[in-house]
Design brief:
77% helix
Length: 323
């Protein structure tokens, strides 16, 4: 009882805006994960390295005197190159998807160190530079994160409705049939991986600005957070809209999934649980939300089997009465 008396609800309320701001950034990152994980059916582990690449490039170019938007754009280009490498390792050299992502991720660790002049981290101050987003101004950070997320959703919704975007979605659904219909599936895989990691680097650049530094380990475990946001968003979206859950709404809920995830993290910290166990809690959250659709489907199938069995028994009984 004394433990709960030490918990101040105001502390949680005060922390929520910061959780929302970070959640929006991770939600943007989750959109990149969604492109490969759902649309392409490709488990890409490159993002653990490319997220840090986005932060490193953004910070170092800003320190060198580049305008922040330009630095962020170059970070996106670096992300496109990271995804390109993973795609070529897979399509040109025949390396399995997971191993291709791991190889690029490992290589990016050294690349990121070189970008940051062999330093493990580089700081950047909102007081010296005109950053787009900062934890020093949380309401503005929420607005900026929301604008970036909305703009990205609009662009992705338009792009994946084009012929090229549809070919990426077709490749993820059925590679053999797509190839038989004249789609260059190797090209679409490389393209989707590049787009995905470009979005991830954008999120990494925003996160580096928000927290005020780029760190060599800032992307560690980001794939798990991205998957958590995707799964949480999809579960909530499907529960609310069911058959009316279209592509645009799905992307909106993926961003909201990042926000929900970070609110859960905020609650965990507010409960004064060990922060070193956050990865464990993340794994549990993802496992629970992954299990929900499966258990729901299993329950529906069970009900259908029961209904069919009852219908068959009733029919047999009626046949016996007639005879």
């Amino acid at each position: 009882m004394s433990y709960f008396l030490t918990l101040n609800p105001l502390n949680l309320i005060n922390a929520l805006p910061g959780c929302i701001a970070q959640g929006l950034i991770w939600g943007i990152m989750a959109l990149g994960v969604y492109v490969t994980f759902r649309l392409l059916n490709f488990a890409d582990l490159t993002v653990d390295g490319s997220f840090a690449t986005g932060g490193a490039v953004t910070v170092m170019l800003t320190l060198a005197g580049f305008p922040v938007p330009v630095a962020l754009l170059i970070a996106v280009i670096a992300g496109l190159a990271s995804g390109l490498i993973t795609g070529l390792l897979h399509t040109s050299l025949g390396i399995p998807p997971i191993l291709a992502g791991i190889l690029t991720q490992i290589a990016l660790y050294s690349v990121n160190l070189h970008i940051m002049d062999m330093s493990a981290n580089k700081a950047i101050s909102v007081q010296k530079y005109q950053l787009l987003i900062s934890l020093m101004h949380v309401p503005g950070a929420i607005l900026t994160g929301g604008i970036f997320a909305a703009f990205l959703i609009i662009i992705l919704y338009w792009y994946f409705g084009t012929e090229q975007g549809s070919s990426i979605r077709a490749t993820g659904c059925n590679p053999a049939m797509s190839k038989a219909n004249g789609i260059n599936i190797n090209f679409t895989k490389v393209l989707a991986l590049s787009i995905s990691n470009g979005i991830v680097c954008l999120a990494g650049g925003l996160m580096a600005q928000y927290q005020g530094f780029a760190d060599i380990n800032m992307g560690r475990g980001s794939i798990v957070i991205g998957l958590a946001a995707v799964i949480i968003g999809e579960v909530f979206g499907d529960a609310l809209f069911r058959k009316h859950m279209n592509f645009a709404l799905r992307m909106v809920f993926i961003v909201l999934g990042g926000v929900i995830y970070y609110i859960v993290v905020g609650i965990v910290l507010w409960l004064k649980l060990n922060s070193n166990d956050l990865k464990l809690f993340t794994a549990l959250i993802v496992a629970i939300f992954l299990a929900v659709p499966y258990l729901q489907g299993k329950r529906r199938n069970s009900f259908l089997r029961t209904a069919k069995a009852s219908e068959a028994a009733l029919k047999a009984m009626n046949d016996r009465e007639v005879n």
